[in-house]
Write a structure and sequence with these properties.
Blueprint lengths: L6 H6 L2 H14 L6 H14 L3 E5 L2 H14 L8 E5 L4 H9 L3 E5 L10 H7 L4 E7 L8 H11 L2 E5 L20 E5 L13 E5 L2 H10 L4 E3 L2 E2 L10 H11 L2 H18 L21 E4 L3 H10 L27 H9 E4 L7 H12 L2
Parallel strand pairs: 2-3, 2-4, 4-5, 5-6
Antiparallel strand pairs: 1-7, 6-7, 8-9, 10-11
Helix pairs in contact: 2-9, 3-9, 4-5, 4-8
Bound molecules: pyridoxal-5'-phosphate.
Length: 366
């Protein structure tokens, strides 16, 4: 069976470096907010081209802390509306509702799967205060249009960059430097994945960064002085040490993902599939390689019988989840159509040519 993602195999190439780093960590005697966190924040911030990077405990916490900080700065208030794509991962939407704000779901574009700027324009009201754009599957949202809308309507633009580490826009800026503040997840399956939970915020806003450094650490100003009602959302020292190793290889790994995506596109010749469009730019880092088929379930079963494991990102829409019964009755036909047709093929830097050929042959014979 070709697994959808074999994390043990993906990480095995770094085992020697991981062990050395763990040894150093053990000997350091410093386990919380030590040198590794500070060094990773510096390195990842520079990688993204952002002035500040704040290491936190997960992608969801990164998103929530950004929204909390904007509330403290009085740029957001209880009940404000935040626009977010309907087909994103649930964490994007949770961050909004958990912060006492109102998520306003918007349809994606049928071609790019990312938030449709025309649909955004239709739902803006006087209560709209921000857009939470998501670079879904590793592909940047329409940067130019969302920036324009936010500029003209005086909205905050926040990036959910949990799937897009290293993606580059047309004008050369990286994910994490395309908005007022960006949230990253380093969940193990992400393009830059830790060996546990981890996340970060990047921003060029000093006031926001100062608040975030405090909020993630109990709202502390000095050891025994608490300026804000904060949280314990620190980036773990050991995860930071592991992430520093993997960050060195992120560009190489993203390049490999793009090569695999191109190989799929060049060799899948089953015309009943819709393949993602492969541009020459680096605006897509293929966190997922998502195809579409009208008989998706049959295709998924067929591939499984032929030894290929695939996944669906995501099989149940957020507005149909029990957790969001306030959305009951809302209809998003494009989101619904997509979730019935999408299928994620295996894509990771350690997939071998032989495995790729087997996957492609199975798809072509369907
Ligand atoms: C993974 C992910 C998150 C959440 O990250 P965690 O570290 O698991 O909390 C948020 N948004 C998107 C789009 C994601 O893919």
């Amino acid at each position: 069976m070709i697994k959808f993602l074999d994390l043990k195999k993906v990480n095995a190439q770094y085992n020697e470096e991981f062990k050395k780093q763990f040894e150093a960590f053990l000997n350091s005697g410093s386990y919380i907010l030590g040198e590794e966190v500070a060094a990773f924040e510096h390195e990842f911030g520079s990688y993204c081209g952002a002035k500040f990077c704040i290491g936190v405990s997960s992608g969801l916490d990164a998103l929530q802390l950004i929204l909390e900080a904007y509330k403290i700065m009085e740029k957001l208030h209880e009940g404000d509306e935040i626009i977010v794509p309907a087909n994103t991962y649930i964490a994007s939407v949770l961050s909004i509702s958990n912060s006492g704000l109102k998520p306003v779901l918007v349809e994606p574009d049928l071609e790019t799967y990312n938030i449709n700027p025309q649909e955004v324009l239709r739902v803006i009201t006087p209560k709209t205060k921000a857009i939470l754009g998501v670079h879904l599957y590793g592909s940047l949202y329409d940067v130019e249009m969302l920036e324009k809308i936010c500029r003209e309507c005086n909205l905050l633009l926040i990036e959910d960059a949990a799937q897009a580490h290293g993606a580059v826009s047309e004008d050369g800026r990286k994910a994490g430097n395309l908005s007022n503040a960006a949230a990253f997840s380093f969940y193990p399956t992400k393009n830059l994945g830790a060996l546990g939970d981890a996340g970060a915020v990047t921003t060029n806003d000093k006031e926001l960064a100062d608040l975030l450094f405090k909020l993630r650490n109990y709202g502390r100003r000095t050891t025994y002085e608490y300026e804000l009602k904060g949280y314990n959302c620190r980036l773990d020292e050991l995860q930071a040490a592991f992430l520093r190793i993997k960050l060195k290889y992120l560009n190489r790994d993203n390049l490999k993902r793009r090569e695999i995506a191109k190989f799929y596109n060049d060799n899948i010749n089953n015309n009943s599939l819709v393949l993602p469009k492969i541009g020459s730019s680096n605006s897509h880092v293929y966190h997922q390689f998502v195809v579409r088929h009208q008989q998706r379930n049959k295709l998924k079963e067929y591939l499984y019988r032929n030894g290929v494991e695939t996944l669906i990102h995501y099989p149940i829409s957020i507005y149909k989840q029990q957790a969001y019964n306030e959305f009951k009755g809302l209809e998003f036909p494009i989101t619904e159509r997509l979730l019935n047709e999408i299928l994620s093929l295996p894509i990771n830097p350690k997939l071998e040519k032989e495995e790729l050929n087997r996957i492609i042959n199975s798809i072509n014979s369907f």
